[in-house]
Design goal:
Catalyzes the hydrolytic deamination of guanine, producing xanthine and ammonia. By secondary structure, the chain is α/β, with parallel strands linked by helices. The protein contains 14 helices and 17 strands. Strands 6, 7, 8, 9, 10, 11, 12, 13 and 14 form a nine-stranded parallel β-sheet that branches. The chain has a four-stranded mixed β-sheet with strand order 3-2-1-4. Helix 3 runs parallel beside helix 4, helix 4 runs parallel beside helix 5 and helix 12 crosses helix 13. Bound molecules: guanine and zinc ion.
Length: 458
């Protein structure tokens, strides 16, 4: 879609490399008709003033006020779209009970296309309001409802990767919510891929289909094999849950005599375009395998606090240069905000370092080196997620898609308080990562299109 080119005069924060904050003070960002960053000029560059004046004369200049900042859009690497109505409740039982008692009955309701359309419209509005410019979604087993999610993301302008969920195992999945059999699941996945590609054709589609075996326990061998063939034939992303809890990990080991990651690899499902959710129990061998395949991990720290029985070894994964981003895992996680995701990743990493066993002497308690800092957390939520998905977004560089937020620290009731002469730009960025809420997000752009319209009153 052609858009009107424009130029932004703004102070921007981004973390193009893990842990490295770049402050682009009063830079000019030129956005082209394709929605990409055509140019970035600093005030010291030749032509800065002329360019700004020319944009002003053409009425294509967007100038941010003091206290307003530009940030890259946030990337949710793992979210269950149909669980939106369940967000903030039903977290009183372990994962395997939660699925059967609450989640499968809710997801079964998406056989009703009207219900699906109502919820998915609310969901996409809610995520955009929270600054999520890209989401990797699990939908449900239903082709029509999953396609409705794709249509809604496209209409509202959110970058989305969407999977029709496959779960065909008659022992693990209830009769009321299961693919009829492996052949049907594979056929319907293929139809879904083709339908999404027809909806969003071209080399840079805003919405893409994803092969989505829910997790090994819910799928037959035949389905897993068939899906890996589809992933290769259609060159699709793959997403699934990996080694999330004691129960999930042990289930796979009992069935295949090897880890989740090794089993997925055996089926050909571990590729550069695979995202594994959680992965709390991966060991060194798994990490080496996942890193060798170039697959990514969606770290979901809040949900892990409820379901995982263990913390994800984030520092070990980052030290191996594995691809890692952040997922909200709605509704295993109760917050739609990736700023919250950053905070939960930070606090989890700090708890890992200090250890939880106060009766042990300090030197025996935790994992030295485990803490991440706010720059690493923000990288996970932006450039790290983009790297995992192999998408040209996540930071401000010439040629990348312009997916961005206007963060306004001066709105009423803001929890970000800045004092001139006391806070450095680096301090401001840290305060944003630690205290921003959706109330601070004044505008959202995806591929150069302004998509935040606010949530309609209901
Ligand atoms: N957190 C989480 N784990 C899962 N494992 C299989 N399905 C799910 C799900 O919906 N949520
Ligand atoms: Zn999940």
């Amino acid at each position: 879609m052609k858009k009107r080119p424009f130029t932004l005069a703004a102070t921007a924060f981004h973390t193009p490399e893990r842990g490295i904050l770049e402050v682009l003070e009063k830079h000019l960002f030129s956005i082209d008709a394709e929605g990409r960053i055509a140019d970035i000029l600093s005030p010291a560059d030749d032509g800065y003033e002329q360019k700004k004046e020319a944009a002003r004369a053409e009425r294509t200049l967007v100038e941010l006020a003091a206290g307003q900042f530009l940030l890259p859009g946030l990337i949710d690497l793992h979210i269950h779209a149909p669980q939106w109505p369940q967000m903030g409740k039903a977290l009183d039982v372990p994962l395997e009970v939660w699925l059967q008692k609450y989640t499968f009955p809710l997801e079964a309701k998406y056989a009703d296309l009207d219900f699906a359309r109502t919820v998915y419209a609310d969901l996409v509005d809610g995520l955009i309001a929270n600054g999520t410019t890209t989401a990797l979604y699990f939908a449900t087993i239903h082709g029509p409802a999953s396609l409705a999610l794709a249509e809604i993301c496209l209409a509202k302008g959110q970058r989305a990767l969407i999977g029709k969920v496959v779960m065909d195992d008659p022992v693990q999945c209830p009769d009321f919510y299961r693919d009829a059999d492996a052949t049907t699941a594979i056929k319907e996945t293929e139809q879904f891929i083709e339908a999404v590609r027809a909806l969003a054709p071209g080399k840079r589609p805003l919405v893409q289909p994803v092969i989505t075996p829910r997790f090994i326990p819910s799928c037959t061998d035949e389905a897993l094999k068939g899906l890996s063939h589809l992933a290769a034939r259609y060159d699709c992303h793959v997403q699934t849950h990996c080694s999330e809890s004691d129960w999930a990990k042990t289930f796979v080991e009992d069935r295949f005599g090897q880890s989740d990651a090794a089993s997925l690899d055996g089926f050909g499902l571990l590729t550069r375009r695979t995202i594994l959710a959680h992965s709390n129990f991966i060991d060194e061998e798994d990490m080496n395998l996942i890193a060798a395949r170039g697959a990514g991990i969606a770290h979901c720290p809040l949900s892990n606090a409820y379901f995982a029985n263990a913390a994800f070894p984030l520092r070990a994964a980052l030290d191996r240069h594995m691809h890692v981003g952040l997922g909200t895992d709605i509704s295993g996680g109760y917050s739609p905000s990736l700023f919250d995701g950053c905070r939960h990743a930070l606090s989890t990493s700090r708890m890992l370092q200090s250890g939880v066993h106060a009766h042990l002497p300090p030197q025996e308690r935790g994992l030295p080196g485990a803490p991440i800092n706010h720059c690493e957390a923000f990288w996970l939520a932006t450039a790290g997620g983009a790297q995992a998905l192999d998408l040209p977004t996540g930071s401000f560089r010439r040629g990348l898609e312009f997916d961005a937020l206007l963060l306004d620290t001066r709105v009423a009731h803001s929890d970000i308080h800045i004092y001139d002469g006391y806070d450095t730009p680096e301090d401001v960025f840290q305060k944003i990562v630690l205290n921003a809420t959706h109330g601070n997000i004044a505008k959202v752009w995806v591929s150069g299109r302004e998509i935040l319209k606010g949530i309609e009153p209901r």
